[in-house]
Amino acid sequence: MSLSILPQSSLFLGIIPALILIYISLKDWQGEYVEKTLFIMFVFGIILGFIAALVEIFTVSSGILLVVLFPVLEQVMKLAVLNLRRFHGKRSTVIYGLSIGLGFGSIFTPVSMILASVEAISNVALLAILLGSIGIIFIHGATGAIIGYGVYEEKTFTYYIYAVLIHLPVTLWFFLTGYYNMSQLQVGIIVYGIIVYWYVKKQIIENVLKQTENRKRTRQPVP
Questions:
Q1: Which of 23, 94, 170, 181 has its CA 20 to 30 A from that of 104?
Q2: Where are the domains of the chain?
């Protein structure tokens, strides 16, 4: 089967992995978040990701400016939503950050596929770029959770910087490989994305829940 159908179906190729990651990550979080808010944050993420993609497509930039500016822009867009007063000091902000990040990242799959199809690259290269774009979903989900954790812990700026630093290797990788000129190397992005996401899931998402459960146990009266 030809991969030429990928650009037409690429929106689903972005959203489906993002929804699967939400489901996996929230396995033990039942009752700790508001489903409506979670959905709204995911939609917000898609909208913000679309705006960011348009800005990046039509912004003339190169070199170090591209490498640094895009991570700063994309992470600050998530921060602008997550830093609302209603999310301060709430552990569920970590999950809302994950949701907005996954929604944000999901839009880059259709954008990548459409741009790749315009370049008329090979099917192998197109598949490599697809895998790379899924890696971006992992990265945006992880960085969204990191920013959400910063808001929860009231260390917003510190964790915003962490999110930007984690994102920097992605734009640097794109810059060094020329994206479409060496598209097969974009498979490395999914490896990096999975590693980052796994670390954030273990060290932040699961730890916040464990800390909450431990606090509940210590507050229980001794019989």
A1: 181
A2: 3-25+35-214
